[in-house]
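Lab notebook, bench 4. Still working through the backlog of constructs that have no structural model yet. Next entry is a single chain of 304 residues. Request: give me the structure tokens for it.
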Amino acid sequence: MPPRVACARRLVLNAERRFRRARLTYGHGTDNARDEAVFLVFHALGLAFDTSDAALEQPLSSCQMAAVEALVKARISQQRPAAYLTGRMWFCGHEFLVDERVLVPRSPIGELINTRFAPWLAISQVRRVLDIATGSGCIAIATALAFPWVRVDATDISPAALEVARANAARLGVADRVHFHLTDIFPAPAEPYDLILANPPYVPQAEFDALPAEYRHEPALGLVAGPDGLLVLRRLLGAVHTYLAPTGWLVMDTGATSAALAEAFPAWPFTWVALAHGGEGISVLAARELPRTRGATTARQLLD
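Model written out:
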């Protein structure tokens, strides 16, 4: 229970202690009990993350304390990600609406968006971008905001996810430049893309079955990709040359499945990015580096 007379700081510390005792799992925007407590308490109180120390010491009303307590109790009892409890998550400095129709935004691709994909991409050559498995639309929309002159196509197989994505595009003012397509992986053939981004499902079924409760609240459609996690990636790589411009780049987030991907596609010279802010499994690949033998090699891999 929270202290009878409290300020925001005390409620954060109280929530942190309770989260630790409950042995919650993190990884949906935060990676520890303190940051999770800050996220929920500040949301309940309507505080900005740069709130002054003085404001954190101000006494709270009973209504404010009750709002915090409701979120803390729900986080512990339901083991839902905090983003689903608040209906929002930040990505690349932008606030996105989220719920159980989409994965919680957290891809390390965000770090590359913030640097405009330097040093790989020549931004003056970027006109058309494709985002595969867009979910909430966070990668597509953040890219459109980072490159105000580009058109972004974004695909997803889930109609429910695209409802969320379209709401986010409208809310962040890019609905005229980000176009969503209900399709599996690639849209209908069109002019090649200068940049293709992909954060597709890549979790093996057995691994998904063993995930903590927090991850089981997310849509399995956005996570599971067959027994080895490569079901979608095999099809993506088998056709990407058709959609990528000769000077284009492919950027993928394949997480912990990256080792299996590299083993399955030994002829593909993936560059694995060292991330400044943590995370793993981000690769970049230039169109000019695509294996020349992709026809026979990919056919076999697609049948594996």
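Notes after review: The chain has a mean pLDDT of 93. The beta strands are 88-91, 94-97, 128-132, 151-156, 178-182, 193-198, 244-253, 271-272, 282-286. Flag for follow-up if needed.
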